[in-house]
Amino acid sequence: MTVRRRVVVLMVACALYVVSMIGVLVAGLWVSDHMARRVAGIHGRLDVLSQLSARASNYGEQAAEVMLLGGGKSDDLDAVRIEIERLLARLTQSTRAEIATLSGMDEVQRELPELEGARRAIELHHSIDAAMNNVLSLQRGGEKDAAVLLYQRGVSFRLANELLPLLDAAAGDERDEIATEIAKVNAAEGPLFIGAGTLAALGLLSIAALGVSLWRSIERPVAILDARARALVAGDADVPSAAVKGEFAPLSESLAALAAAVAEQRWSFAEAGEKLTSEVDARTAQLRTANEQLQEIDRRRGQFLTDVSHELRTPLTILRGEADVALRGKADPQLQRQSLERIQGQAAELGQLLEDLIEFARTAAEDQTLVIADTQLDEVVSAAAQEAQMLAAPREVAIVLELADHGRHIGADFRRLKQALIIGLDNAIKHSPPGTTVSINTSVEGEQVRVAIADEGPGIDEADLPRVFERFFRGRDEADSLASGLGIGLAIAKDIVERHGGSISLGNRPQGGAALLILLPAGKRIA
Q1: pTM here?
Q2: What is the mean pLDDT of residues 225-243?
């Protein structure tokens, strides 16, 4: 028998063993459950019968007391009547519940007399109770002798000789049934336990025998193949193939093919060495190219320092010249004021250049972490517009704010996003003639919010549009305009917006002027 068939047989044996044990367990549980329900039903009816017997005796006592003491003591008798009626109803219910626990029609037929007995007890009680009512009527009518005679024959005698014996006999039958059910369970336990133990032992022995047989059929081929594999690991590819049959034959052939591949690979090592040499040469060329790129970066850094020096030299020269004019001239307050105003203006431009340099150094040297929080877009835009008013006032430019985002929220770093908006507003203000307007408005576009900043300036040369977000790029004729700076503001704004998961673009408006467009992922609408 092949290993595969042995495995299948072992699996089938295990499955049969598990199913058999589950069957035995289910049978045992069914027997236990049936016995428990049967005993509970019998016990319930026995409990009602015991209570009925006690209440019937109490009924007799209360009736006798009423006969002796008169009708004024009938309250206790009425209470006992009500309790007996309740217990009689429970007797019928418990009898039906007990019959419902039976599983066969024969058993149901044997238990039907219990229903008849319950009906008989109800009728007997009603007859006794009706006689007691007649006794009370005769007693109230003054016919005491007739009342006593009727009480003795219709109440006391029937209660002691008919109702109570009927209840006691029914209770005795229920006790006998409980004993019978317990005997049945005891009789069924022995064969069930013996069968379960025998089945478990046979199943375990069969599984153990099949497992040993399977292990023996696998152990020898695996040992042979293991020795072959160890030889290959040790580098001995010339070991002959092992004689293995059955399911392990393909694995033996695979090891033989592996040995052939190892032998072939030995011859390919020399060729691989040559390829490695050529790869080293290629990597060397790449390093040479990278070195040239570093040199270009160093050259651009030098150019940057030259540009910075030039930008700083001009305001410093003007500052010194104006100071000399103010110092060597006559004490003309008007001339001195003009010199001081020019000095103030150049100092402001110098300060702006230094701010640009500091911002560039910060963004280039460190990766600033954004503090993202749930932020309302119109609050960020309003804060940026308010600060931009200070930049617009000296240039006589008006800031117009239009909010149409309906209170949308975004996930943003409030300070950094406001910085990007102020850069866009500052850029628009610098390129706006005096008396014009810079507008900033918000809107919603699907799952995004839109912030647009527009000015009424000359716009941007079409040739400069592809490079407006490059660091240190300043458009044509920039030096002759009112704008100043190193050309890094828009690059910083682009970095901030993209780190927020958005996009930024700059273009010309059809009616004139430039427009900066920022798109950001939208959050929830305000309730």
Answers
A1: 0.40
A2: 66
- Please report which helix (H) or strand (E) contains residue 403, including its range: strand 398-403
Instruction: Please give the pLDDT value at position 44.
Output: 84
CB within 8 Å of 252: residues ≥ 6 apart: 224, 225, 228, 241, 242, 244
Host domain of residue 141: 3-210
Contact 62, 23 (CB under 8 A): no
The domain boundary, picked from 195, 210, 225, lies at 210
Q: Amino acid letter at 5?
A: R
- Look at residue 357 and tell me if it is in a domain: no
Residue 379 inside a domain? The answer is yes
Residue 49 in domain: yes
Q: Are residues 311 and 351 in contact, defined by beta-carbon separation less than 8 angstroms?
A: no
Among residues 49, 144, 26, 141, the alpha carbon closest in space to that of 95 is found at 49
Residue 319 DSSP label: H
Within 467-524, strands assigned E span 503-508, 514-521
99 in any annotated domain: yes
Exposed e or buried b for every residue in 403-414, given b needs 16+ CB within 10 A? bebeebbbebbe
pLDDT (average), residues 22-29: 78
Q: What pLDDT digit, counting tens, does each position of 64-120 carry?
A: 888 777 655 577 888 888 898 898 888 888 888 877 877 777 777 777 788 788 888
351 against 517, higher pLDDT: 517
Q: Find all residues with CB under 8 Å of 238, minimum gap 6, and list them.
A: 259, 263
Query: What secondary structure does DSSP assign to 421-466, as a single string?
Result: HHHHHHHHHHTS-TT-EEEEEEEEETTEEEEEEE--S----TTTGG
The gap from C-alpha 190 to its chain's centroid, in whole angstroms, comes to: 52
Neighbours of 35 (CB within 10 A): 16
Q: Rounded to the nearest 10 degrees, what angle do helices 249-328 and 333-365 cross at?
A: 170
Q: Are 402 and 440 in contact (CB under 8 A)?
A: yes
User: Mean pLDDT, to the nearest integer, of 424-447?
Assistant: 93
Contact between 413 and 500 under an 8 Å Cβ cutoff? The reply is yes
Q: Which of 175, 210, 245 represents a domain boundary (last residue)?
A: 210
